[in-house]
């Protein structure tokens, strides 16, 4: 593996790279779960998804949030972000690592950067959701100290059976 860097995404080029990684994540879901495309579209509504990507810098703005970009030998390979979900509680969102960087600790490094920043920003806990089929992500979150919990937001009935929720103290 080459040189891995994890930094806050700030410049327009860095934010564009994060948006591309988010699009790659949605495509990864389509490719890996073709039988659940309608569910993916429900969670990542195609019409709202691009608007969400445009708003990422505002949704995850410092000092209440953060967007991290992982680079391997200078090339963007992963991202994660968090924002305030409730007072003293951060929510981790959109963790994704491209295929070329999987298995090299990039996801762990991204999560650790997000957790450390949330802790430094005086959050007391962090929450996240993930899909029931994303077993590698579930294992990662458990290794990082996250524990399953009940839903912390209103979940559409069509998504109740495919989402898992996690939380950990910071």
Automatic annotation (TrEMBL):
One Pfam family from the record: Acetyltransf_1
Domain N-acetyltransferase stretches: 4-169
Alphabetized InterPro entries for the sequence: Acetyltransferase_Enz (IPR052777), Acyl_CoA_acyltransferase (IPR016181), GNAT_dom (IPR000182)
Membrane-spanning residues: none
Name of the protein described by the UniProt record: GNAT family N-acetyltransferase
């Amino acid at each position: 593996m080459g040189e891995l860097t994890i930094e806050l995404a700030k410049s327009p080029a860095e934010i564009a790279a994060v948006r591309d990684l988010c699009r790659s994540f949605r495509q990864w879901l389509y490719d890996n779960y073709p039988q659940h495309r309608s569910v993916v579209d429900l969670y990542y509504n195609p019409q709202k998804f691009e608007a969400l990507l445009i708003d990422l810098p505002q949704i995850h703005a410092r000092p209440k949030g953060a967007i991290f970009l992982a680079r391997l030998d200078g090339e963007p390979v992963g991202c994660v972000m968090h924002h305030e979900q409730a007072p003293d509680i951060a929510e981790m969102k959109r963790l994704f690592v491209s295929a070329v960087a999987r298995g090299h600790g990039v996801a762990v490094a991204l999560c650790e950067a997000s957790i450390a920043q949330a802790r430094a920003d005086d959050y007391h806990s962090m929450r996240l959701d993930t899909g029931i089929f994303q077993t590698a992500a579930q294992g990662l979150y458990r290794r990082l100290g996250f524990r399953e919990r009940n839903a912390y937001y209103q979940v559409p009935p069509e998504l109740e059976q495919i989402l898992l929720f996690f939380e950990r103290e910071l």
